[in-house]
Structures are given as C-alpha cells and as structure tokens.
Amino acid sequence: MAASVPGHLAVHFSDLARRIAAGQVISGPRMTDPLVAMLHAALGAVEPGNAVRRHLRRDGGRLVLSDGRSLPLGRRTVVVGAGKASAPMAAALEDLLGQDLDAGVVVVKHGHTCPLQKIRLIEAGHPVPDDQGLAGATALMQAVSGLTSDDLVICALSGGASALLPAPVAGLDLADKQAVTRLLLASGADIQAVNTVRKHLSRLKGGRLAVQAAPAPLLTLAISDVIGDDWGTIGSGPTVADPTTLGEAQAVCRAAGIWDALPPAARTALCDPRHESPKSDHACFTTASCLLVASNALALSAIAAACPDYGFRAQLDPAVLHGEAAEAALRFVAQAAELARAGRATALIAGGETTVTLGAHPGLGGRNQEFALAAALALERLDPSLSRRIRILAAGTDGNDGPTDAAGGLVEATTAARMRQAGRDPQRDLLSHDAYPCLAAAGALLRTGPTCTNVMDVAIALIAA
Q1: CATH class held by domain 9-28+310-463
Q2: SS3 assignment, position 186
C-alpha cells in the first residue's frame, strides 16, 4: 500500500470547496489515494444544497417534506439560518422558493460562503463569537419580528450556529460571551454540556428563536454536527423546546471547574430565573416542525459504499470518536491492529466528535490533528508486521480543525520518525497539544479548505491484506 500524502491535496480540495459552495454535485475523476477519495465521497454525500433538495420539494403553493408532511407557503416566506453549511442550504431554498421568497438572512463562518440573490449573507467568527456574529444575530431577530400566522419561517441550521449567533441576555455583553466560550472550549466539556450553558445565556438559543418567530409557522431544516442528532444540541436548539435547565447549566460550569472563572455577569445570569429557556408547553412549538437532511451517519455510509471500489471491506464503528482525542486514537489503532491480524483488506470507519482538554499554555492544533498525532505514535509502537499495513486519516468534515487551516491529518507507521527527523518531539507535542507544527513537519497535515458542510468528524483506517 502506498505510504505517502498526495501532493495535490490542497489543489483538489480547493476545487471541492468551490463545488460545494456552488451547490453542485461533486463529480470528477477519482483521486489516486483511497483514503482521500473516501473522504471526498463522504463530503459529497453531505453536500448541503443537495441535502435540502433531496428532502424538500414544491407542490404548487405547498412545501412537501421527504417524510410525507407538507405545509403551505406563507403570505410572506422568510428564510433565516446559521452555521457552516447554511449558505448552500440557503442557495437551494432560493432556487426552490423563487419569487415566493420574500427575505432572509443567514450567518456563516468566515469563508464558508456561496452566492445568494435575495438572502442576506453575513460572515462571522467561529468558534469564539465576534461583532459580526452579534450583528448577524440582530439581523436574524429583525427578520422574524412582526410576522403573523399567515407567514412562514424556514430555518437553515447547521453546526457552528451556536458561536455564530451571539445574542447575549440582558446584563451580558459580547466580551462576557467570548470569555465564557473560551473557558468552555478549553475545559474539555462535550458539545451537549457546552450548549447547555450557551442556551441559558442567549436570546436566540434554546428555543427562543421559535418564540420570536411565533405566531408564524416554523420549519427547521438541519444538518447535524452532534452525536445522536439531538435537536436540542444542534446549533444549541434555537427552534425547539429546551429540556435543560439553569441548574444544569450551573452544574456544567462547576463540573468543568470554570464557575469561579466566569465573568460575574455570566454567573448572575445563570442564577436568574428570567433566563430559563422555553419548555415543550410553550405555544410557539405547536406550529414548529423539524427535518434532518444530513448527518454523520450519512457520511459514514458513503465511505462504506466507496470501499469495494478500492478493494476494501468496510467495517463501521461509529462509537469510537468520543471522549479525549488522544484516547480515542488509541482505541482506534487497537481496533485497526486486530483487523490487521485477521489478514483481510479492511477499512475501519468511525465518526463523531472528540474533545481536547487544554493545559495552561497549549500549542496549535485541533481535535483531529491531536487524534492523528496520537495515532502516529500508537502505530509506531505496534509490531512492524502490522503497522506497515495501516494508514489512518482523521478529518473534520467542515475543513477547519480547531483554529487552523487544516482539516486533520493522514498518518502511518513512519510518520512519527519523520517528525523527529524534522526536529520535532511528537510525544512532547502531543502533551502540549501542539499537533499542527508536528504534523506539518512530517508532511502529514490534511488541508481541504472550507467545505461549507459540517457533520462532525470522520476517521478511516485502511488495513492492507
């Protein structure tokens, strides 16, 4: 099996990003590296524009959903949304609605854009919210204000929406939200816990967008970036009833060891009963409906379907990617080693989202890069008769892993040795969460550019017979 990182990765995936941003079907010649081609298949399966088109169609004055439900277009039809995939989702809705679309606004991460005609596109900061996000959240709230029961709101929601829609509750400002976000991200708390806190510090999250859009009917189309596709966690659940409570938000902060470090205004807000989120008995949810259009499971299925084309038998383990990234990598390599002992050409496929608990002075990287670095060290420790037959890719489907320009990494048994030859200490870099320069030194970074989709992460281990 070839053991090199293709030099054309950046060129190919720049083209891929443009295709996804334009809402086009991904096509073209297969790449020579099966690992990269399988990632390409995953991204194609969860392309946001086509995901919307597969699940929503027009029948005269009605919208028909793929599950058989339908609802009438409104006197005024407004599209709002946020997330890394919301721009191509909005483009598909513009095509579908045509002249029946009255207005709209979507907020996306910087660079995750595509051309829109009637829907206003606002780029903002992620994962830490910024002024543009605050302006976007304000514009979104204005877009749904003053509507009636004869109107219709369609929300295009995807991963990243939580950070892209900062709308602090009374008594909080953007700097407070930024400080809370940084503390949560560094704590190692999982996304469900992080969003439990976010929902109780926001005028939009935790069902509050649905409250503001009422009495207009509300349809949410979502691309899930959370394990289990929980509606209350995707984008911090702005359009669904919130089962979490202020008390649970306080408990998250205490368990993560950040309660005392929170800005005083945030602690006050989390103890204020006025900031409790709306529950299922609120009238606004009687006219709200939701439809999932893409998820991590769909991406994994596409990888599995591509495996026979490259001579590999697919084995899915969607449960691997959770917990600390380095620990998940050890589990993944151990499974790959067992498959290597069996002697069959196999692709081990996993999906999900890990965490990284940062120390006081972390380096540069992301959870997929940390996974790849830990995997490289684990491969090096295997018997060479096994390790030389295993190659591993770990990537964020959005194309941005942490605060870097890389999606993840692609490693093999010799990667750690190449890091040392380049003057890096991979074990030290792993402990200091400095995976980016370490992988870069070995030529093992995987760069895709923004893909304008987001269904968490994928990991693939190709095991040669």
Answers
A1: alpha beta
A2: helix
